[in-house]
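Final report, results section. Input specification for complex C-07:
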Amino acid sequence: MRLGQHQDRRVLRTVLQAGVALIFLFPFYWAIVLSVAPKSRVFTLPPDLVPGWDFHPWERVFQAAPWGLYFLHSVIITGSTILLVLITGASAGYALSLPTFRGREIIFGIFLAALMVPPEAILIPDYVVAYHLHILNSLRGQVLPFAVNVFAIFIFRQFFKTLPKELWDAAQLDGASWWRYLWNMALPLSKPAVATVSLLTFSSQWSQFQWPLIITQGQAARPIEVALSYFQGFDGTHWRELAAASLLTLTPIIIVFLFTQRYFVVSVAGRVDDREPSSPMTPVNR
Amino acid sequence: MQENLNPTWDRPASLTRSKAVARTLIRTRKGATGWLLVLPALAILTLFTYGPALLVVAMSFYHWSLGGFQDSQWVGALHYRELFNPVSGFLESLSVTFYYVGIMVPMTIALGLGIAWLFRGGAHKPTPWVTFTRAAVFLPYITPAIATSIIWVFIFNPQFGLANAVLRLFHLPALGWLVSSTWALPAVMINNLWHNLGFTVVLFLAGLSNIPGDAVEAAWLDGANGWQTFRYVILPYLSPVTLMVVILTTIQAMQAFGSIYAMTGGQFGGGGGPLNSTTTTAIYLYKSAFIFFHYGYGAAVSVVLFALLLLMTIVQKQVGERYTSYQ
Amino acid sequence: MKNKNRKSLFALALVSGATLAGCGTTAAAATHNSPAHSNGKTIVTFWESHSAANQQGQALAQVVSKFNQSHPGIKVEVHVTPASAKALAAVQAGDPPIMAMIGHQPQYGYEQANALVNLKPFINGPNGFPSQQLHQIWPAVWQAEFTPSHQQYLFPVDIKVAEFFYNATLWKKAGLSTPPTTWSQLMADAQQIQSKTGAIGLGARLDHNDWLPLFYSNGGHYYKPGHPGQLDLNSPAMAQTIRQVTARDNAPYTKILSYNTSFEDFASGKLGILENTADGYEMVREQVGGKFPVGVFSPPPGSTGHSDYLYQGLSFVIFKHASTAQQQAAWSFIKYFDSPQGQAIWSTVGGEPPMSQADVASVEKMAGSQFSANPGPYAGTAVAIRELESGHVIHKIIGPNQSEIDTVIQNQIQSVVQHKETVSQALSNMQKQATAYLSGAAVQ
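Structure output:
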């Protein structure tokens, strides 16, 4: 009898888990259904939940705007940001892990202070800075402010600290420069850190909205999120097309997530153990 | 003598000189390399974080013009006086923000902990089912809020949306949602809960997995019931995570922008409607500076937001630490 | 040693630089919102905000392609952008387009930034409009293109006047035959539709515009006549307006809709009458997709005995930073767009009324025999033309603080609707708050 109760509980738990997963996945599913719904089936009560496989909305979406261009902008912005975050993060993280680096306590404190500044609060002065650097309405303007992530620095610092001291001694004996030690030995051993930083930067940068909304004006440097938002504004009456356009924006990140979801989750969870002060950078989607 | 210790480092003669260089570098380094390595990060942070954090305070005392200080007009505390003039709408935006934060934080903790509890265990040898369901919960968090919010606009359509279909199913009256000044903010909350819960769940799952099994077992053996075990064994273990979730959710909620913008027609005048019912301080700040182009006034809003966030974080930490036990 | 450090720094800088250059190459080519030439053609970048997927966007695309074909030296490039706000940011960043379509209200920001070309020399110049043609532009539309200090930066394109759409099938089912001619009849009709068919009687919009025509048709004014700068909101006309709006919004047969979802609600066949503007007619018809005929009628008259139709819309502007050749090319496009030929396409494909009495004939010709059918494919345009011909069209330009004052009025009216205030409280509050804005006591 006890066993039966136990079984019942397990079934109940599985059902509840399925229910929760369903709730979280449902909006994505509904977007797919809407984007391929025949016109007559969009406005039905209760809502029609079976896809109708009518691809006209997709055709119309692709006619409505140069999505390829916007997509390319987003790819370039995200790609170069990841690269720069890796470079700045690895080099600064390496410096902070060096026992011979005298200023490292001070620098560490300075980096910590950056985490205390909420991005929303410096939105306006950042715009002023971007104006004076002549990077408004450019791809560069969407990369540079995000080229450093203090979390990336901390992740690399933690990682380099765990590398065996013998490795460093051997490198010194061999007469290798810090640069070669970092590039040829430390970095290849830090693939998990590189992966974590890349994934976190990818997801936050692909989801970037407010900053590009503010600094881009024409379509010259417009990323896909801003384009999507304008499409919603000017064509908010066409549900099927809107659903298609939002799926266009969602697809790349969902694909990346499908292949890397375990690392993603570990990357986020890893922050609990850091015991570093919480970061305003953490909310990826603003 | 030191050559060829590591065969992979064997390089052609052209590199010998740079090796010699490197050796000198190591011998003479007194932290110079360190400074050099942190320089790019420091430079960019100075430009886009430290500098602006100071600039925003200065800007708030000016009728700011993009040309810089020489084109701007000193107005003293004028902007701050305006903030507290009820007509300016800033105080209203603060009360909307506190309403939003006040609901979001407890809801995030309750639902996050509940879902984490439902998905607990199995982390060591994840079955495909565990992997799949957890990924499903986490997925919204990494997607662009602007894209998913569009889907939520459909869901909250008063006529054909799913939200009202569900209400009708339970014979409840249908709501206006985004066209109602009462229900627009709750609609935004539901969207953002859905979007951000995955993050909290992951944090709580990590917290739960840190609880040693024998601590729970000992409690059971001592005759504690389910609630007592939860209250006196599990909750104390989770207190550091909970404190972190409180702080992060507050920070997140105070700065929510994209979802509100997308759900309340931001493309037409910046969003925040109907009737300012979703004008949080973040939306108010955006509109001041980038719809009405009052940069100086917007800077004053930013400074107050900055101070509030700092204050809330400190208070939460102070109060929280008192009830937090680090095992 | 210093030298080596510099070398390492150089290496780092090189890597970062290369990355930036990678994104820089596209950026550098694209940063300029207004390239001057391409293949020997003068390029005119034109920011406008009609989606390429809807009727106005398609009409515009047709006019642009006809223009580009007939003007081999010019290429107009349309970029769909929320120009009213974004072009001003682009001006501040020193990188505006050549021309744009912006609203009336935003022009003050542009004027302050000294960003717009004064159009008078173009209008009166050799390639301009003869004065008898200018006289035929709808008077209210033409007046709206001037600032209070009589500067002209705007030239009309996109003319929206208020209209009501009705579902002719539901209408017939409810036993109605002629459109209502008074507000009380409109309310009674909406009630009858709801009780006879079960559909919602009237869908009203929640925005700044629906109270204003009522206010004017009740004899109201923003300012005391003869006292410019002195607001006159605490008036019997406003009191009556508030009562009308309150009665309408709180009626069981009225539903408040947001602009975007109102089209779908109407297309579902579950809404009898929809409050809208002329440009929405084509969009509504497209959404309905022939499921039922859609009729149009004008807002009924107020206590003055006539209706007042609010004109809003977007206008062409040319930016000062453009070269002389670009300015001239942009002007030729404006002239082409506002020629009878361009207006015929704009009105029949885009569903908006033409900008001048002189264009009506060519619109009718292109539309053919169905022009005056109501319900019919051009009913929205035909009714809008009649409204414009009546002369009772108002434009809402009173000055730079317009949107703040409108927000105050709108919020006070809503407070009464929601039973938070009495009518007289709302009247005195809106007068007080709006005056505070006007005097500059409040920034926003």
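Residues 222 and 232 of chain C are 5 Å apart (CA to CA). The interface with chain B takes residues 1, 4-5, 7-9, 12-13, 16, 82, 85, 88-89, 92, 109, 206, 255-261, 264-265, 268, 270, 403, 410-411, 414, 418, 433, 436-437, 441-444 of chain C (CB under 8 Å). This concludes the modelling results for the funded period.
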